[in-house]
Known about the structure:
- The protein is mainly α.
- Helix content is 82%, strand content 0%.
- The chain contains four helices and no strands.
- Helix 1 runs antiparallel to helix 2 (29-49) and helix 3 packs antiparallel against helix 4 (84-103).
- The protein starts with a helix and ends with a helix.
Amino acid sequence: MNWFILIVAGLFEIGWAIGLKYTEGFTRLWPTVGTVLAMAISLGLLGIAMKSLPVGTAYAIWVGVGAVGTAILGIILLGEPANAGRMVSLALILAGIVGLKLATPA
């Protein structure tokens, strides 16, 4: 269950990272409210997941899920480049996430 919570925390991290773009420097009220809420939920779920998962593994997976998801949404929503170097790099991060999961007992 804590692995599921950790992945959901990573999804909320994606939400707040993308949300930051839409706050326009925290000058737009509703995007700011949504972003801050996503931040709080993400960190809260990360804390819950860390009750039984190793801190290094949990944090690395949380950041990895957030980084990969944010980069993919940046490509889809914001027109950021999707060149081969970026895609290979994202695949390597994803491989690291899977490797950490497989190497961690629990």
